[in-house]
Amino acid sequence: MTRNWSPAARRYTLRLAVLMTAYVALLVFANLMFKQGYAKGALAYGLALLPALPIIGVFWAVMRLLIEEKDEFLRMLLVRQCLVATGFCLTVMTVWEWLQNFELVQPGNGGFGAAFFWFAGLGVGALYNRVTMGTAGGCQ
Amino acid sequence: MNNRLKVLRAERNWSQQDLAERLEVSRQSVNAIETGKYDPSLPLAFRIADVFGLSIEDIFQRD
């Protein structure tokens, strides 16, 4: 399957693998530092934000794929996928927020933030492309 | 927009992959254009016309 990927999609996959590896490593490191009691003052803020950096990196990787993909049809599929993901994420977060506003669900997100729902939305977007265009694109 | 891509390709005995390689696009792109799910940009339409040695109007027609 990978032989059919465009060079841009291959670069994206490599970047994703590096970023996800960094995410796991930084998450473990930050947790360890907090548990050991090293996280105090400004350092605590830095440590808490460490796992967020690779996630922000994934947003960058998706946008780079959008720029670097030379195949205009695959690029259009990715744009549709991102739009669906954005709509899905905003919808879920808005519904959740209003359920919280009227205290129908517990406050907090239980670790499931906007990024999680945006990535889930990419999956929904790929499915939408598959159903409406016959293909999910060059990199699912 | 209608197109004669499938017929022109068949006349030359090219697979979708063959045409995709000539156009330097994915096979999915060729399939989407052939089936009318995607209308190519003008630059890609010119490339398609060049590959077949025809004008754009000979390949693409209005609905």
Main features:
heterodimer, A: 140 residues, mainly alpha, 75% helix, B: 63 residues, two-stranded antiparallel sheet, 5 helices, 2 strands, 6% strand, globular
Shape of chain A: flat
Largest sheet of chain A: none
**Largest interface, Cβ cutoff 8 Å:** A-B, 13 and 15 residues
- What radius of gyration of chain B results from the CA coordinates? 10 Å
* Gyration radius of chain A, rounded: 18 Å
How does the major sheet of chain B shape up?
A: 2 strands, antiparallel
Care to count the β-strands of chain A? 0
What's the pLDDT, averaged over the residues of chain B?
95
| Overall morphology of chain B | globular
Helix tally of chain A equals: 5
Tell me how many strands of chain B there are: 2
From N to C, what is the helix and strand string of chain A? HHHHH
Helix content of chain B: 55-70%
Give the terminus-to-terminus CA distance of chain A.
Answer: 11 Å
* Cα end-to-end separation of chain B: 5 Å
> Proportion of β residues of chain B?
5-15%
- Helical residue percent of chain A? over 70%
Number of helices of chain B: 5
Descriptive account of the structure:
The complex is a heterodimer of chains A (140) and B (63). Chain A has 5 helices and no strands. With 140 residues, chain A is mostly helical. In chain A, helix 1 runs antiparallel to helix 3 and helix 4 packs across helix 5. The N and C termini of chain A lie close together (11 Å). The relative contact order of chain A is 0.14. The mean pLDDT of chain A is 92. Chain B is mainly α and 63 residues long. Chain B is 60% helix and 6% strand. Chain B has 5 helices and 2 strands, in the order E-H-H-H-H-H-E. Chain B has helices spanning 5-11, 16-23, 27-34, 42-52, 56-59, and strands at residues 2-3, 60-61. A two-stranded antiparallel sheet of chain B has the order 1-2. The chains are: A mainly alpha (140), B mainly alpha (63). The A-B interface holds A 4, 6, 70-74, 76, 133-135, 137-138 and B 24-29, 31-33, 35, 37-38, 40-41, 44.
